[in-house]
Amino acid sequence: MAEAHQAVAFQFTVTPEGVDFQLSREVLKQIYLSGVRSWKKRLIRIKNGILRGVYPGSPTSWLVVVMTTVGSSCYNVDVSMGLVYYIQRWLPEGRPYRTPYTRTLLSMAVFSTGVWVMGIFFFRQTLKLLLSYHGWMFEMHGQTSHLTRVWAVCVRLLSGRRPMLYSFQTSLPKLPVPSVPATVHRYLESVEHLLDDEQYYRMEMLAKEFEEKTAPRLQKYLVLKSWWATNYVSDWWEEYVYLRGRNPLMVNSNYYVMDLVLVKNTDVQAARLGNAVHAMITYRRKLAREEIKPVMALGLVPMCSYQMERMFNTTRIPGKDTDMLQHLPDSRHVAVYHKGRFFKLWLYEGSRLLKPRDLEMQFQRILDDPSPPQPGEERLAALTAGGRVEWAQARQAFFSSGKNKAALDAIERAAFFVALDEESHHYDPEDEASLSLYGKALLHGNCYNRWFDKSFTLISFKNGQLGLNTEHAWADAPIIGHLWEFVLGTDSFHLGYTETGHCLGKPNPVLPPPQRLQWDISEQCQAVIESSYQVAKALADDVELYCFQFLPFGKGLIKKCRTSPDAFVQIALQLAHFRDKGKFCLTYEASMTRMFREGRTETVRSCTRESTAFVQAMVQGRHPNEDLRRLFRKAAEKHQNMYRLAMTGAGIDRHLFCLYVVSKYLGVESPFLAEVLSEPWRLSTSQIAQFQIRMFDPNKYPKHLGAGGGFGPVADDGYGVSYMIAGENTIFFHVSSKFSSSETNAQRFGNQIRQALLDIANLFQVSKADG
Q: Which parts pass through the membrane (predicted)?
């Protein structure tokens, strides 16, 4: 009742003399502070908008141009070539402009501002042109051409000194639309070795018919969209691949991210959360103020930052036909789940962000709360783990009014979701299964202790270990990885703990406790929740996850093979898959296209003709090592070239996907596109980014390594593999499959990956001792 009393701004009573008002000073103070906060944010946004809008210019550069113009006039030099005099003639004759000196100064300011704006436009367009050059990506390491060196100097000169997060957005080039013949040619090349002669001839005829008859019309519409839209792929990719999907998000779409696994800062669950949540909100504040530096490839080429905009205060809202992403400009609380109860935890006291010790106290209050769940509350989140249509119908029927709507709003409008688990999970190098159990807990939990619709759920285990479960529609894995690196680095090297494992500082005991959310869940609604839970549980129980740390070597020794670590691992995956299944399959590797504005991902079809030739030679076992090394290097070069083409907008699958969308809008049937888009990815892979921000020196702290993260299998009879080449000496793998498939076994495949890596290393006689 204390919260309800404090929420009343004034009271009144009726007396014989009239109405007597009693104002609450505390609430009026909070209203005043709320207004001050709002205006501060508006002013920061306005300031950032101006600085971003004139970048790489600045107020200082404007002043320099003005002073140069004025100073030159003192020496009777007219740098404007008469334009100042021309502007002066057009100034009104009013009182402010009466004196000639005032009119001259104003004319010079107008002229200088025009020159300054034109300079900014010229610099931006030049920078955009320079960033459209990707020749540097295709040059051999250590063999930089003179053209690329000149290009790098020009980019550095035009990039400015202190860019804000979104400073380069308008300077990034648009994603180009590849030509249809080039895409079709690359597609046929990618499947020729996977089909027999008859199948390939049939696909070749379909491709030829498509290229000659159907594609030109579709391509025209796609080119038109590329001229009009910022990115011709991203909005359709988000809508049709993610938001229109009707299958459960859990396992099928959401992915997980692990904590540091070789070091531990504290065993106190509430304390670890206090530091982590404080670091996350600090990151959010930096994000809002654009104080985070943009990610730069090679420290030179800016990556698009637009995906970061919806990291916080974002929820996926279910719909019958399509979902939508609800993003709010701000949120002052997080939603918390513990032992079947939902809580609302405020992050601020007035305008001040709660300190880590205060947040620890609030989380501990939730952990100590003995109240039982309300009827139907415990498994409520299973609605977000089941089918999307069922969740949309339930949301409309049972959560559109009353206390249920208010409680659901508290969750959906939260900055993010926090799950306090009663289990303990961690990685024990002596117990390999511990990493897989940890991954399973993050991927799906018990199917009702994660809110799978939130942009991300921060998961806290009883022993202080953390992790994330992340919704995929709003952004790709490197974006949440950027946040996670900041959180782990801030927790370990900036905030710290006491000797007893608690957050530093003293708590404020007068803070009101977290608020229990109130529900009125009918028996009919409980039946729907139970149905969703059974769907989710069947899905979770079918997932086999095998996570392991590969210890024999890492990136450092792979480089001795004179190839990229990613190509090395991808070719090893092909070898492992062939040994596991006795055949090759269409393989998906995610590549990013963030060198273009609003770019997301492209597919690298990493099962190439060259990699299959190497694998077959390895399996036959009768080729000399010199031949095998030659085949390997050829496969690695092909893979690297495919990856570079994907990154530079010359991929295959996004172009064909967009042509398919256009064909559906036009009502045009294309057997070629229908077949291409229906091909299953039985091996889906992804490398996990690391060290995007340098919070600490990995050479000085080699054990401060996360284990990456993982996802569920894309095909029912396939594998999902994510890997993180963690520093110089180790690699983490996350392999998923389904128990219901007789063709797959995640642990068996994981062991094949281990052996394939060792066998390829032996070709080059690379061992840890060589390091």
A: 105-123
